[in-house]
Amino acid sequence: MFLPHMNHLTLEQTFFSQVLPKTVRLYDDMMYELTSQARGLSSQNLEIQTTIRNILQTMVQLLGALTGCVQHVCATQESIILENIHSLPSSVLHVIKSTFVHCKNSESVYSGRLHLVSDLLQALFKEAYSLQKQLMELLDMVCIDPLIDENDDILNMVVVIHSLLDICSVISSMDHAFHANTWKFIIKQSLKHQSVIKSQLKHKDIITSLCEDILFSFRSCLQLAEQMTQSDAQDNTDCKLFQKTLKLCRFFANSLLHYTKEFLPFLSDSCCTLHQLYLQVHSKFPPSLYAAGISKAQQEEIAGAFLVTLDPLVSQLLKFQPFVEVVLDSELELPCELQFPQCLLLVVIMDELPSQPEDVQTLWCTETQVSEATTRVSLLKAIFSSFEQCSGELSLPVHLQEVKSKGQTEVAVTLYQHVCVHLCTFIASLHPSLFPELDTALLNAVLSANMITSLLAMDAWCFLARYGTAELCAHHVAIVAHLIKSCPGECHQLTSLSVLLRRLFFFMTPPQQVEFIQKFSPKEAENLLLWQYISFQALPAELRKQTALEVSRSGTAQCRKWLSSSRTLGELESLNTVLSALLAVCNSASEALDMGQQTAVKEVGSQLWALLNIKLVTGQPYVQQTLCLLLPLLGFFIQTLDPQLISQVITLQTSLLKSEPPDHVRLAVLDFLSSLGKLFIPQAIQDKILPHLSSVFALLLADRNWLLEQHSLEAFTQFAEGTNHEEIVPQCLSSEETKKKVVSFLEKTGFVEETAAARVERVKQEKGTFWEPFAKVTVEEAKKSALQPSAKRARHELPLEEEYRSALQAATAALEAIELLLQKSPPPDWLLTKMETLQERIDKLKHHVF
């Protein structure tokens, strides 16, 4: 009533600064009185009921008076200088927040007696709602001159924005539209006054709150979608609520996108939050193993309305070095559910980089020491490392939707296909200055102990060989060949390099293959190490015949040399290399060998076999390797082998299996047995061979190792289908259990049915068990573990879970202590305020539990 009679330019000095602080104190006192009296509220106690209702009515009137003040300022001033009314926004925002907090906590404050005051609480909320709307209109009229260093005005506006941010955290679960409008206003004012307040704003708080609200609304959206999927009947209310929540998700995401674009230079300490937002969202969305169960239509709707905004966010952050350092941190350790999203993020980044300048590509693709404790790995290294951690997603496998070529519909591809295709596309567009980084990353990945990672690197390398020049391919083949020759002995790195050499050799041009043969001539014994790994099918017909003969002649000569020497065990390693090279010729270029050369190979094989005995084989690993090479070599010539030699081989196998040899020896025995299927054994020697043969099969079919059991069944089936000696087949089935096993294998029955949901759950448990660093399995523990794969594994608890439990128990104990104190004596004046602050912190924490 007094305002119209006052000079609007002196309102702050004459009225607001004098009255509003007292108004705030009065309102706080009423709020305290209200909360204190609420404990005694009941329908029988009319005195307290009247007191509480009178307080609420007074508060409604007070809010109305404040609304009148705000309206008067709006009506009398076209442009507002904040310094002239600075007490008004701060006081109003304090009162608004206090009101919303009380309304939010009303169920706990009034307990089961809320109905006695619900009408006035509703009026109070509406009045506070109107007051905030009016205040936002006023603040929209505020003008801050960017040329004048008005520190007070700048600080006042910053305080206003952060006060509205606090209100957002209170009303987020109360009124979605009001919550969104408040955020819209915060973003608008931040951008309007960007030039003067950008250095003063607490950007981390704004980004964190916005990300929390995105995750909270996204979780609500998924919960509604899941309810709709599980419910047979389509509830129109649920559908509308789902659509409304999805729009809220999109609004928040677009707000984040806009804010990030404008204030990017100030967001270095928010990069971790933005990174986590991307990972958290994708961890809860199909095809993640940890995703909610929602329909295909809802997936497409959410992806089209909300997820599409996350990729532009990544694009904005590509040039921002702090974001690069967060994503590529060498010490980054993610829980199981975030490893797959990290892999997807890296693929998105990889797709974006070709359109970026060279300096941005270099930023992502080079390894750098950020500090003494932190290293930024290259994007390529991170891709392989992240891919390796997605064991569950690869083994299931999960499928992603992808368009193979423009204009075509999307098709489902596995994670392996998805990463491989995008990696090869990235390699094709990589800047030449980054080729050394590519070479390093590919070689390190090929040498990885993880088989699937090594395979991915080989596929990418083969693409590079085909996409690049012929000279580059030849250069790479030569490097791999030298690496193989420099390996000290059998190891997983040698295995991977040998597979890579075999594959790359197919991409060489004939002239380059000739150069390779000249450089690594098979006539030299030291080069047979390489030729054991090369498929002769990669060579043109004439060159294949010539090279196969050279390897065969050189190999048989080396075998004869060993046979005529002192035959020491120390020389067996080189002999095994020779036998392996001869076996490679037989497997991929047998047609190139004339009868004389075939006879020569068969003769040295027979002579070497004659030197073997059970004691040597069981006691010497190198001799076991020799046996494993001789068995398939002799099996290749099975139709022309001396029956007496076949008898000796099977007799030794019988004795050997009884001594429980290593798995690779038993697998070699199986390969030889499967080659006997089409062999006709002469009548004169059947009594010596067939009983031992049935005994060998019986021993192998009874093996409990699941891998050997599978190979045994396959070898026995192949033998039984091809043999002319049908009478031996029943003799191999030594027990009822073995008979049932074979029948189930032939009829493809006996499998345990597993639902899709059960399979996903099992894969998640296996991933939790095997993933480093949460699952540490020592060599000794691995040796003690059963060879049979476990159908189910216990879920592994995260190391921090115990700390969570401990912290929660401490918090519960503290609250119980306060409850006891309240029973003994009246609470101090400050307790309620502190408890409300605590409640707000709990509400914020709830957003993180997602």
Automatic annotation (TrEMBL):
Pfam families, per the entry: DUF4487
Domain of life: Eukaryota
SUPFAM superfamilies: ARM repeat (SSF48371)
InterPro entries: ARM-like (IPR011989), ARM-type_fold (IPR016024), DUF4487 (IPR027902)
PANTHER family noted in UniProt: CHROMOSOME 1 OPEN READING FRAME 112, FIGNL1-INTERACTING REGULATOR OF RECOMBINATION AND MITOSIS
Protein name per Swiss-Prot or TrEMBL: Uncharacterized protein C1orf112 homolog isoform X5
Species this chain originates from: Tursiops truncatus
Lineage per the UniProt record: Eukaryota, Metazoa, Chordata, Craniata, Vertebrata
